[in-house]
Design goal:
The protein is α+β, with helices and mostly antiparallel strands. The chain has three helices and eight strands. The protein is rod-shaped and about 80 Å long. The protein starts with a strand and ends with a strand.
């Protein structure tokens, strides 16, 4: 309620007139909608490659949109590999994969300075055959 020229009005004039969790819309206090829920999609790579596959570009674009929708200040790209190859090689490959996704994300308007990278190499690999190793060859975007 607020008073205007001695008359009390049951309406809001600004968000400050509304209870917490509500905003003023055309004189009425309305609940602020919950932020749209989106989730980050993994980006998969071919064996022994850090080139972003054309079929994975939509996943990166969806991740960029999610970063903007959720107004994330910063994100981390985690590069992962299957267990084949030496530990050192897989750490380097995971880093190249993370940087490849970072480059494409920055092309979608996400500031490079807001994106950090890390390589887990084969540390998080769980696969035991080709089809499950394909799931290990990825880069994950996290908050």
């Amino acid at each position: 309620y607020w008073c205007d020229s001695g008359r009390c009005v049951d309406a809001c004039r600004s968000d400050a007139d509304c209870p917490a969790g509500q905003r003023c819309v055309n004189g009425d206090c309305e609940a602020i909608p919950a932020p749209q829920q989106c989730s980050m999609e993994p980006v998969y790579f071919d064996f022994d490659s850090s080139t972003v596959r054309s079929d994975q570009r939509d996943s990166i674009e969806a991740n960029a949109n999610c970063i903007r929708e959720r107004e994330m200040g910063s994100v981390r790209i985690e590069g992962n590999c299957d267990p084949r190859g030496t530990t050192e090689y897989n750490y380097a490959l995971g880093e190249r994969r993370a940087h490849a996704v970072k480059r494409v994300l920055s092309g979608h308007g996400i500031r490079r300075g807001n994106i950090s990278t890390v390589s887990y190499g084969e540390d998080r690999a769980t696969g035991t055959n080709e089809s499950s190793w394909a799931q290990d060859r990825r880069a994950d975007t996290t908050e």
